[in-house]
Amino acid sequence: MFQLKPITKASIPRALEKAERYRLLNEPRQAESICLDVLAIEPEHQQALSCLLLALTDQLGGVVSGLAERAKQLLPRFTGAYERAYYAGIISERFGKHQLAKDHPGARIGAYEYLVEAIKYYNDAEKLAPEGNDDAILRYNTCVRIIERHHLQAAQRDEQELPLE
């Protein structure tokens, strides 16, 4: 029926500027589409990968399922260990925030677990960060503040053994 048209390599910088702008305008699906167009001609373009990952996680509150998994599948394509750890943290953090926004039993516990997972990734990223890049620390602190502000905690394990009958 219809076929996607490829963009030119020369248009990549302008396309990525547009993708970032669409993310800022809260139109992550448009940003996602642009990033996919860039990656169709340069599959390992690092800026396009990061923008796509962010655009996917921007959509976590919507009705589209599988977004977190799609974002996770991008992680091995990042060339740097710092980027892999940092963006893994972003995925966990955003999924934790998404869980926190849900109003069902266990959502707060799930949010806590994802935020703790994000903290671990940010700790890893901090060790690998280039000089002058404290992004992982900033994200780590955000997760800690969310946990504190919402009084989140791990699931309480019942130490009492229940009878079989």
Key attributes of the depicted protein:
about 65% helix, single chain, about 0% strand, Methane Monooxygenase Hydroxylase, Chain G, domain 1, about 160 residues, mainly alpha, 2 domains, globular
CATH architecture of the largest domain: Up-down Bundle
Radius of gyration from the alpha-carbon trace, in angstroms: 19 Å
Helix content: 55-70%
CATH class of the largest domain: Mainly Alpha
Q: What is the element string, with H for helices and E for strands? A: HHHHHHH
Question: How much strand?
Answer: under 5%
- What's the number of helices? 7
* Number of β-strand runs: 0
Low-confidence stretches: none
Describe the model:
The chain has helices at 12-24, 28-41, 46-58, 67-74, 81-101, 107-128, 135-149. The protein has 165 residues and is mainly alpha-helical. It has two domains: 8-70; 80-154, Methane Monooxygenase Hydroxylase, Chain G, domain 1 (Up-down Bundle), CATH 1.20.58. The model has no long low-confidence stretch (mean pLDDT 93). It is globular and about 55 Å long. The N and C termini lie far apart (63 Å). Helix content is 64%, strand content 0%.
